[in-house]
Structure prediction request, 469 residues.
Amino acid sequence: MIRIVLPAHLRLLAKVSGEVLLEVEGAATQRSVLDALEARYPMLSGTTRDHVTKVRRPFIRFFVCGEDWSNEAADRALPEAVANGSEPFLLVGAISGG
Amino acid sequence: MSRVRVLVGTRKGAFILSADGKRQEWKIDGPHFGGWEIYHVKGSPADPNRLYASQSSGWFGQLIQRSDDGGASWAPMGNKFLYEGAVGTHQWYDGTPHPWEFKRVWHLEPSLTDPDTVYAGVEDAAIFRSCDGGQNWNELTGLRGHGTGSQWMPGAGGMGLHTILLDPQDPRRIFVAISAAGAFRTDDGGVTWKPINRGLKSEHMPDPTAEVGHCVHRIAMHASRPNTLFMQKHWDVMRSDDAGDSWHEVSGNLPTDFGFPIDVHAHEPETVYVVPIKSDGEHYPPEGKLRVYRSRTGGNEWEALTNGLPQSDCYVNVLREAMAVDSLDSCGIYFGTTGGQVYASSDGGDHWEAIARDLPAVVSVEVQTLA
Prediction:
């Protein structure tokens, strides 16, 4: 079970509170986690990455186990601690815009 | 008794202001989508409880929200706005070709007859249509593809398609306007389009009378006379009596002919409203006096409407989408400011009052007249 922490605006949009728990098919990667997230919550499609290219939106960041994984390859396996649910996958709205 | 519902889009959410037909006591409901930019909210003429809202954010992109109960509840619809075919290029600020990139929906225009059909004007400029209540969107490719698209250039606020007017007498005819490309018309339901900018003069352009490149801020029409159009251009207030085939200036005695919104009285097709703004570099009313100007002669002769509006130290702006009229017997006029005020007049502009004072900066105002 993957734990995902969404920013407040996306929690509101998806009508969830607290962490989102998701089963992910196969290896846990950024791509598979976001695929599963969008499959469960279709209203989140396009809010974190481009519909077609799947490129991360500029002001979205992915934090994992205290590290910034925003620019890591989408298919790189996430740490075991995220895959087994002991650590969350943090989806963060960047502090920017003044 | 009739009621009115004012749909207000702001930089930080949507608000719904409602009152009975007297328009004296207002209830403010909101914010809906707090924290998000709401470029536009508009109701379906065919089903007033069907509302569409454009919700966007620099972080999370574009969403479309729909309400089927007059704004009491909302559901996210489809947000896939994909340019069809070869994306192509328009001109960038430095004159180089730049690929079209979707940024946001500026304007939503529901069909006059079908609640499930709605048009979206987007940045970078294009028009999309949904025929299933906003779930799926398809581009009407003839607009970008008609031939001049590669010459279009963004205005300072982006290359947005901000105005969509549906001809109530001819369902095949649609007018749109784009900053800073100009006005365009289709006569075949959106398959083919042509520029309609003859008569516009824009001194900042190398060829001031070019076919495209004009910074049209807004176009308005009276439903009974769809061939007569009024335009607030970057500078100049213009009029056309042949569905945009030719335009002539009707700025007349305005203190400045720069501005953003323009609208027409619900029952008097020759009564037009604008809000003069000092200049393109100074986006506030001249002399710090917020004045709506009304022409009862279809332009050229304008009178200042000031009763109830701040007449000193006022430096707000009124954006292009932020004026609307109701259709009660005594026509109501509404506009919102970047200072968060929404002003209303229930007597065609003679007297004004603030029906909301401290909202976030107002981007858009629409009005529904309800039975």
Remarks:
- The first strand of chain A starts at residue 2 and ends at 5.
- Residues 2-93 of chain A form a domain with the Ubiquitin-like (UB roll) fold (CATH 3.10.20.30).
- Chain A has one domain: 2-93.
- Chain A has a mean pLDDT of 95.
